[in-house]
Structure formats: structure tokens, C-alpha cells
Amino acid sequence: MNGDSAAAATPSRSGRTALVTGAGSGIGRATAHRLAAGGAAVACLDIDAAAAAATAAAIRDRGGAALALTADIADTDAVTEAVAEVVAWGSGLDVLACVAGTVATDHTEHVTPEQWDRIIRINLTGTFRTIQAALPALRRSRGAVVTVGSIAGVAGRPYLAAYSAAKGGIVALTRALAVEYAHSGVRLTCVCPGSVGTSMPSAATPPEDAPPELAERGRSLLPRRRAEPEEIAAMIAHLTGPEAAFTTGSVHVIDGGAIA
């Protein structure tokens, strides 16, 4: 785990400190920028060091406070160290956005044990370990967590057995922790996007021999387009803000009506 704390000024505790995983691209990058625009000091964590640094640099160029961190969320020790660095940098932690994840498609009978384990380890276990490491600081700040699930975690999607299981696990995890930590003032919510204009949809393309009617599942009912990452980031920012102070344990589907 490597940070750029030498290049990132220590933020003032008059504002909020946020940690965004998967901040190097897509929804994570959009979320980091959205939270920074709202005045938060943002720690940008990604497995890709250059991508994390680019997001943090762009935030600083706009006058914000940002720290770049490199860690694989599937590595418990690396995540624990990263969270500790964020807490030290920001003198606490107020917001955690668990965006990092990965996807792969295949016929279920072709999925290898290694493929299954990788998808579960990164998406579900990585999310759990990040939240677990952050909880002591979030309890002190009575902070907010937003996890990123998927419509694949709340509705049937073919060729995504491991991914669906992991994202469904994130939904259940979020609800369980919301109940467990409500008395501590920590709020946990989950957003479940449909198709978003990032690199993920191309990785979630059905196999070539998929029946057309299955390939059509999950398509938006609204104008035939993918959501923009900024649209998901806007919901994440709302759920971590004061307007959502009475919102916890809820799951927010953002899919253009695909599973309505």
C-alpha cells in the first residue's frame, strides 16, 4: 500500500473526510470528484496507482484536498493499512464509498473455482474488510457508508452467477450492518446500478451463444442509453449527506426501470 501524503496537505476537520475505493475510474472516480465538490477531503484508493494518483491530482488542481492510495481491497492487511493512513491524514473518517469491484461472465458450468473465488473475494469480501477496518473511525464520527451493489444482486441475471452472488451478498451485508450499527449513529445504504457507461459493461457481455431474450434482460426502459457514472455518484453523495440523515438500511436501484 502506497500513499502520496507528502503531496497531499492535511485537511481541516471543519470539513468531512471521505474514502472512496475504486476511485481511479468509472463510478469511483465520479464519486471522488462529487464528494470533493461538496467540500470533502477525499482519499482516492485504487489498485491502479497511476489512476488513483490522477484522480487525486485532478481534485487538488480544482482546489480540493485529496490523497492517493494504492491497495487491493482483497488484501486485508493492505486495506487495514490504507484506512489507518486515511484516518491519520484526515484526523478521522466521515464517509466511506465502497465502489471497487470486478465482473466476469460465463456459462455457470464453465466457471472455475478460481474464477468464483476471485469474484467473491474482490466484490464481497473486499467490501466487508474495508467497512470492518473503517468502522471504529466511522463510529466516532457517526459517519455514513454507501456500498455499490448491482441490479444483478436483486434480480436474476444470466451468466453472472458469482457476480450476482457477490452483489446480493453486498445488499444483505449492508442491511445487516445498518441494523447492527444504527445505535452507534453509523448509516449504511446500498446503490444498485444497472448498465453504466464505464468499462464494466463490456466485461459483463453475455457469451456469444446466449439466447437473445436473455441478452436483453436488464435493459433500461428509459431512452436506450447507459447511466453516466456521475448519475450514480450523485446518489452516493446524497446518501452520505445531511439530507439523508434518516436513511439507513435502504437499497437504491438506479437502472432506468430495467427491473421495474
Tally of helical segments? 8
Mean pLDDT: 91
Strand content: 5-15%
* Net shape: globular
Contiguous low-pLDDT stretches (5 residues minimum) are none
What does this structure look like?
By secondary structure, this protein is α/β, with parallel strands linked by helices. It has one domain: Rossmann fold (3-Layer(aba) Sandwich), CATH 3.40.50.720. The chain has eight helices and eight strands, in the order ββαβαβαβαβαβαααβ. The chain has helices at 26-37, 49-61, 76-90, 113-141, 161-181, 200-203, 212-215, 229-240, and strands spanning 2-3, 17-21, 41-46, 66-70, 95-98, 144-148, 187-193, 251-254. Strands 1-4-3-2-5-6-7-8 form an eight-stranded mixed sheet, with helices on both faces. α4 links the parallel β5 and β6 (144-148). The radius of gyration is 18 Å and the shape is globular. It starts with a strand and ends in a 6-residue tail after the last strand. The mean pLDDT is 91.
Secondary-structure topology with pairs:
Blueprint: E1 2-3, E2 17-21, H1 26-37, E3 41-46, H2 49-61, E4 66-70, H3 76-90, E5 95-98, H4 113-141, E6 144-148, H5 161-181, E7 187-193, H6 200-203, H7 212-215, H8 229-240, E8 251-254
Parallel strand pairs: 2-3, 2-5, 3-4, 5-6, 6-7, 7-8
Antiparallel strand pairs: 1-4
Brief summary of the model shown:
The protein is an alpha/beta fold and about 260 residues long.
List keywords for this structure.
alpha/beta, single chain, eight-stranded mixed sheet, 8 strands, 260 residues, 42% helix, 8 helices, Rossmann fold
